[in-house]
């Protein structure tokens, strides 16, 4: 039963509305009064500019740019259609009805529509009671202190790209959106850049162009914060390291309301924990200082390869090509970083052998097309035809071209159901299991060809992200960050299109015990080790000790994050 409804029933029956594990709620004296809410709104400075989209770069002569939404979304589209003439400093939940924000978005009450959109739910779940949009660290502190004073749980969100709704586990609490923290300062030697936590990668690449770039994901609208602290794979993973490897320092407002600077010298335990311990359980991060990089003198090359077949009748050829491909990938050195998508669809047509598929592969190569010719020839030998080889001289230009403006839809398809674990089921895979990845893909194709039209989810796509740090030339320091050893050693991050617990548990058994926390199944069975083990592996207990030190009363909440369910 939704908790808001259960509270209403409890109140009707004369019970206390407070449930175990929750904080304050509107039926209790700790709930803020209208004048206290109004005082918080004043502290959030309603006169601060919360309008518009980022279009101009302050360092290159433009004015500062509040931007509530990720730039380069299609038609400047905000997440979930949120209309942004001007954000408010504070949104409040006006009714106490039982519906979920997005589970039943068509019946949203007008007075709750704004807070529902501002809280960006992927999978439903109740809206928070308050959503704050601070523009300064002091305003973040005022919001944290307000939440503490009124016994509200806190969660944090930037762009709202989180597939897994980790920010949603905070009923009657406060959500702090950091989307308007947009500072950008390049160091004197250009080797590092200090960034407000609300920035997206396209904003940062734009700022650093043409000479420098930061390691990022594949997508223009993703925020620097969630990507970096969760791990972060992308076009420069093997050469420049994962997101966590590139964080030099961060600033954070912790549960006691203090603003801390964390680096290898100061608050080094928290510095370690956040870089891999992920998401909003530690506090509100207000800035990140990231390492910057430059392309090789002769530039780099973006390659795309494609095969599009209309049937699966020559299974032997597919099987041999798959084996050859999975033997080729580990031979690519750290200059290569890429992804390959195997898309498969069941056909009710025996002449076409039950299935059709396509394979798309995209790699960034830190070198020229000529230097890559052997690899291009090897790809062609297994029918992966080169469809693009574009020289990259300025990473930002190519980044924007490569991604195309993204359409930012809610992701209800990621909801768990009877036939799907939901989310983004994934496995981190070391070099020695390369052939097993090929086998898992062959298994999926065979099962789909045989049973696809009768078994839900069995034909899901496979995606190989060969974009992590397992083939780095010089290994990145394993102990300085808190990602699992599986992540540190992974050559691939493999995502599959989901399926039931049974289907996914069989995949995990073949491929491995850990996922990438930003792209992981929404539900994880005990048979698969449970979420603590699958997401945080051997690091969980050490991370929990640090969580207890900095947030002893568990003010910060986050689903499937350190401290959840403790
Ligand atoms: C279109 C798309 C493409 C993607 N491509 C890639 C890719 O190429 N490589 C890759 O590795 N991943 C990729 N991802 C996954 C991505 O890394 C995660 O969704 C990541 O969490 C997004 O970070 P964000 O800051 O944009 O999202 P948000 O939803 O804003 O935040 C993500 C998490 O971080 C926490 N958080 C956000 N801001 C703060 C803060 N200031 N302080 C404390 N906690 C905070 C939130 O609680 C949340 O749980 C992609 C996701 C999408 C939607």
TrEMBL record:
Q: Name one Pfam family in it.
A: BBE
Q: Does the keyword Transcription regulation apply?
A: no
Q: Where is the FAD-binding PCMH-type domain?
A: 123-295
- Cofactor list: FAD
Do the record's keywords include Repressor? no
- What are the alphabetically sorted keywords of the record? FAD, Flavoprotein, Oxidoreductase, Signal
The stretch of residues making up the signal peptide is 1-22
Coiled-coil stretches are none
Q: Describe the family membership recorded for this protein in Swiss-Prot or TrEMBL.
A: Belongs to the oxygen-dependent FAD-linked oxidoreductase family.
What's the protein called, per UniProt? FAD-binding PCMH-type domain-containing protein
């Amino acid at each position: 039963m939704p908790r808001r409804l259960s509270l209403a029933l409890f109140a009707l029956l004369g019970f206390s509305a407070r449930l175990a594990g929750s904080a304050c709620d509107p039926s209790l004296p700790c709930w803020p009064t209208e004048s206290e809410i109004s005082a918080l709104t004043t502290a959030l400075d309603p006169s601060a500019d919360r309008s518009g989209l980022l279009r101009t770069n302050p360092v290159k002569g433009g004015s500062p740019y509040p931007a509530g939404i990720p730039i380069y979304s299609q038609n400047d589209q905000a997440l979930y259609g949120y209309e942004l003439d001007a954000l408010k400093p504070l949104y409040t939940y006006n009714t106490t009805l039982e519906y979920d924000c997005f589970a039943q978005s068509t019946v949203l009450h007008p007075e709750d529509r704004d807070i529902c959109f501002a809280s960006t739910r992927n999978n439903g779940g109740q809206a928070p009671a308050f959503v704050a949009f601070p523009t300064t660290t002091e305003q973040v502190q005022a919001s944290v202190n307000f939440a503490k004073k009124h016994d509200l749980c806190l969660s944090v969100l930037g762009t709202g790209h989180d597939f897994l709704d980790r920010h949603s586990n905070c009923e009657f609490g406060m959500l702090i959106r950091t989307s308007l923290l947009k500072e950008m300062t390049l160091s004197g030697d250009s080797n590092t850049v200090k960034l407000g936590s609300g920035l997206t990668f396209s904003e940062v690449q734009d700022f650093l162009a043409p000479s420098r770039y930061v390691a990022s994901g594949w997508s223009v609208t993703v925020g620097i914060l969630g990507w970096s602290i969760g791990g972060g794979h992308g076009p420069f993973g093997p050469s420049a390291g994962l997101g966590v490897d590139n964080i030099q320092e961060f600033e954070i407002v912790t549960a006691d309301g203090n603003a801390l600077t964390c680096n290898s010298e100061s608050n080094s335990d928290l510095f370690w924990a956040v870089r891999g311990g992920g998401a909003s359980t530690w506090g509100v991060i207000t800035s990140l200082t990231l390492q910057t990089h430059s392309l090789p003198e002769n530039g780099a090359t973006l390659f795309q390869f494609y095969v599009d077949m209309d049937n699966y009748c020559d299974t032997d050829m597919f099987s041999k090509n798959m084996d050859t491909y999975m033997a080729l990938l580990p031979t690519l050195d750290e200059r290569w970083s890429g992804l390959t998508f195997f898309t498969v669809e069941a056909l009710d047509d025996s002449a076409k052998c039950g299935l059709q598929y396509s394979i798309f592969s995209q790699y960034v190569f830190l070198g020229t097309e000529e230097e890559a010719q052997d690899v291009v020839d090897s790809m062609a030998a297994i029918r992966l035809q080169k469809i693009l080889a574009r020289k990259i001289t300025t990473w930002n230009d190519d980044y924007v071209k490569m991604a195309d403006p993204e359409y930012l839809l809610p992701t209800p398809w990621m909801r768990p159901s009877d036939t799907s674990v939901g989310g983004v089921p994934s496995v981190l895979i070391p070099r020695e299991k390369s052939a097993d990845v090929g086998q898992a893909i062959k298994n999926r194709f065979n099962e789909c060809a045989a049973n696809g039209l009768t078994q839900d989810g069995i034909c899901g796509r496979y995606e190989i992200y060969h974009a992590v740090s397992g083939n780095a030339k010089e290994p990145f320091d394993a102990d300085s960050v808190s990602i699992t050893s599986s992540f540190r050693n992974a050559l691939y991050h493999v995502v599959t299109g989901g399926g039931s617990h049974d289907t996914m548990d069989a995949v995990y058994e073949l491929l491995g015990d850990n996922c990438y926390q930003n792209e992981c199944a929404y539900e994880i069975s005990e048979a698969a080790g449970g979420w603590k083990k699958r997401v945080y592996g051997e690091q969980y207990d050490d991370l929990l000790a640090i969580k207890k030190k900095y947030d002893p009363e568990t003010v910060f909440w986050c689903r499937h994050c350190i401290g959840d369910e403790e």
